Amino acid sequence: MKHFFTLLLLMAVVSSASAQSEKPGKISGTLTDSLTTEPVAYANAVLKDGDKLVAGTAADGSGAFLLSNLPLGNYTLELTFIGYKARKIPVSLTTAKPELALGTLHLSTDSKMLAAVEVTAMKALVEDKGDKLVYNAENDASNAGGTAADVLRKVPTLTVDLDGNVQMRGNGNIKVLVNGKPSGMMARNLADALRQMPADVIKSVEVITSPGARYDAEGSAGVINIITKKGLKGFNGSVNATAGNLNRALGTKLSYRKDKLGISLAANGYQYRNKWRNEISRIALEDGQITSILTQQGAGNNLSTGGYGELSIDYDPDSTSRINLSGNVWGGDYPNDVTTHIQLRDASGAPLTTYRTERRYKNPYGNGQLDLGYTKTFKPDQEFALLTQYSRMPDNYFYDLDTYTEGNELTMRQHSTNYSRNQEYTLQTDYTHPFKLYGARDTTSLKIEVGAKAIRRDIGSEFRVKQAEGSTDPLAPDPDQSDDFDYFQRVYSGYTSLHLSTKNKWNITAGLRLEHTDIEGEFLSTATPLKNDYTNLIPSLTIAKGIGSQTIKMSYTQRIQRPMIWYLNPWVDASDTMNLRTGNPYLKPELSHGLELAHSINTEKGISLNSALFWRYTDNAIEYISFLEDDGVSLTLPKNIASRMTYGLNMNVSGQLTKIWQLNGGAEARMVNMESKALGLERNALNWYFYVNSTVKLPKDFSVQVNGNYNNGWIGLQQRNSAWYWHGISAKKEFMDKKASLTLGINNPFTSRFKQVATRADNNFTADIVDYRYNRSARLTFEWRFGQMIADNGKRTKKISNDNKAGR
């Protein structure tokens, strides 16, 4: 196989070199709006010899175009796009100068044409930016009124199951950033956070499968960066309201920018309904013989309520400096009340115990974060930044549990509280410097990035349990289920990265990142200490070569995954009396190695095809493991218990097939091998999925979109899940001169609920878990945009990006 790919690469290089020797001419440039300096995406660049067409192409999403394999001679370059005046430029390709880099070319708007012509072209939903794939969520009509989980379901390389759990190429250890910085909400519990973040605030999603040295080493699978919509220059804003059977929301965004000062405010309130039912059947084994049988049925119908707000202030003392201050808060309550019927039988089927539990479960959570930063730009590609950040995240869990006999007699009451906190302080500095290479042409550049960061995390959990027998006895503390846990983590890191770009489309990025972690912890009631430290040297290398409209890229990186706070917290969640869950404060970090060979091609018709072969190996992998006690109760906790190897192929195609029809789709197949010598377990499976997203823009400002995905399931060390699918349809109408819109979205219209089966097995038990998710939904969203809508192309605000959220 490796010889086959080598042969293909050699053939492409030889063919390209042969063509270039006969037609060595090249013309490149970038098209921008003369007023806003925004890129003019997908404009036409045509080369003519008199009236004869020599070559033509369309600019990409960033306005860049390339005409290659051109014969030498004198020509006219014509640049055209709907809404702009045509521009003609005389060009000459000679033996002495066969390649012309025209740089930035401005196109002037044509007001007459704009008034007479309706522009129906749409920006590509998916773009390949070299080091990342970008999904332009704001151009996807079906996202209106949905959640971030709905958005991520349509992002290449990502899969989102029915519970909102996200995986990148089969790995759930992902770092999720918001606007390049960490979000306490995302770090707390990603699946819950995605359900509570409205899709309407998301502009785009960046997927980085091979992060370089400038990114923190945290995140085994890679990095997801959610970009929210920014305010434009002047005063502007929007309000939106969503009504539906599962989702409801009300929000606003306001922005003001003039001269040196910029202020933006965003606020949103939301509700999300979670309705489900499950069935558990578990058989306990001893020496291959059945000892007991558990059957359990539960159902829940809960409504979570929450909101967020963010205020950001930017001030530019001069044309090269920016000071930014921002604060945001998230908060809400995520209840999970459930009624459960439980029966435990012996090997012959005779009942041992039968009872019912009523659980009232609350998860009030919150996060407050402050960012203060200073950025100085000396010249293009030379920048210094000093950034600080403070965040505090209370994350509390409370439940009351009542147990009843078959005769409805109350036999036990329990009250559990877990007050969890996480305070984080960060100081970071970065510097970027370009170098001039003597003897090299202007199209060859070298850039170095260096930086340092210090993070201090103070984490704690105070958990208490009170319980009583019968309905009248007072609740009494249970010291065996109560303790105070303190955990302190310090991460010190430094990095350096070199980026080389040449005239013949070689791009090489090499970097090293050194991270040292100190950990101290203690169980206060027993004075039991916990101490650990480790140092990681993380290399990364990416080599890319452009050949005409194609790019071939190879990358290698190491990543680490520090255990999150919910992995570490030793509080025992006993709200499901037969299935207990807890954390493990003695976890060690994962270390993974990843290789990727990627290929992308952009056709003259605007079709983009991206594919990648990938391999990743993780040692000391963290897996949730279930242990069955003699009384038939299961305890599940995370352990460093396995090695995990994943390899496969990912493909994505996107483009605008016609002026009104846009199509985006993809598929992935991966082989997953997991092994634990300690438990004597091994799992192997071929996992695959595909998705499709199609949008049609109709007359009179109507648009219709359909989307769907299918996944054949996933595996864990003890578990295998069955397939799941998701589909939706939406229709959007814009009015009031496109300042307002009304969007109707329907998810899973052809099925009211979805059934998913998970099988779990170990040496002493087998279990079948059947989940029913009620996810048919309809929502109607109204949005109104007001104010001055002029693009702000000023300096970029830089903030801290803690993508190594171990303490969260």
From TrEMBL:
Biological processes per GO annotation: siderophore transmembrane transport
Topology in membrane: Multi-pass membrane protein
Domain Outer membrane protein beta-barrel: 379-784
Cellular localization per UniProt: Cell outer membrane
Residue span, TonB-dependent receptor plug domain: 134-223
Pfam families: CarbopepD_reg_2, OMP_b-brl_3, Plug
GO MF, any single term: siderophore uptake transmembrane transporter activity
Signal peptide: 1-19
Keywords noted in UniProt: Cell outer membrane, Membrane, Receptor, Signal, Transmembrane, Transmembrane beta strand, Transport
Entry's Gene Ontology cellular component terms: cell outer membrane
Database matches in PANTHER family: HEMOGLOBIN AND HEMOGLOBIN-HAPTOGLOBIN-BINDING PROTEIN 1-RELATED (PTHR30069:SF29), TONB-DEPENDENT OUTER MEMBRANE RECEPTOR (PTHR30069)
Name listed for the protein in its UniProt record: TonB-dependent receptor
Species per Swiss-Prot/TrEMBL record: Pontibacter burrus
